[in-house]
Amino acid sequence: MEKFEEWEDALDKIDWSDVLDEVDGQLLENLANELRFRTYEALKVSSLHLGDGYHITHLANGKWAFWNEQNYVREDIRFFDTEQHFLHFALQLFRLNETKAKELVQLLQKTPQLKICVVCNHHFNPNDPARKDLGIEGIYVDEEKSEGECCSPQCAVEAVLHEMKDA
């Protein structure tokens, strides 16, 4: 009986809100991983926030991923082949009037299409202001042909080391 009480006391001392926050964080990291991002933060800053937890992401393959950070567990990511397919869906879902529909079209046109890093295979935003601040607007494995872009200096170094190892 004493062990049961110890176990019960231990359970009472657990801060369940911290546990739930940690689980939520891991679920969002899983969402990022599912969309081939290094972190949830990278996914979030590379996506257009539409309100009420909804986001749209223009993936490297040209598709659009529509997701909700609050309902991710209950609502699957929806993929759209074109901007037009997403617009049709959004007009029905959100019942947008003409003005709001035009605003959404303008926002989508400003949303950059992402790229895939040739080293880590994660999506990245080539127009990310942080990349420009660091002076890494384009890091290519083959600088002459501007092919095989890397998402970060770390991936560029890894590519060079791998090339040296193979040589």
Summarize the structure.
The protein is 48% helix and 17% strand. The protein is of the alpha+beta class and 167 residues long. The chain is flat, with a radius of gyration of 21 Å.
Describe this structure in words.
There is one protein chain. By secondary structure, this protein is α+β, with helices and mostly antiparallel strands. The protein has 2 domains: 1-113, no CATH class; 115-167, no CATH class. Helix content is 48%, strand content 17%. The protein is built from 7 helices and 8 strands. It has helices at 2-12, 16-34, 40-45, 83-94, 98-110, 129-133, 153-166; strands spanning 48-51, 54-58, 64-68, 78-80, 115-116, 123-124, 139-142, 147-150. The strands form 3 sheets. Strands 1-2-3-4 form a 4-stranded antiparallel sheet. The protein has a two-stranded antiparallel sheet with strand order 5-6. The radius of gyration is 21 Å and the shape is flat.
Determine the strand fraction and express it as a percent band.
15-25%
Unreliable runs, pLDDT <50, ≥5 residues?
none
**Count of DSSP H/I helices:** 7
Sheet of most strands: 4 strands, antiparallel
Number of domains: 2
- Give the strand order, joined by hyphens, for the main sheet: 1-2-3-4
**Which H/E pattern describes the elements?**
HHHEEEEHHEEHEEH
Helices and strands, with pairings:
Blueprint: H1 2-12, H2 16-34, H3 40-45, E1 48-51, E2 54-58, E3 64-68, E4 78-80, H4 83-94, H5 98-110, E5 115-116, E6 123-124, H6 129-133, E7 139-142, E8 147-150, H7 153-166
Antiparallel strand pairs: 1-2, 2-3, 3-4, 5-6, 7-8
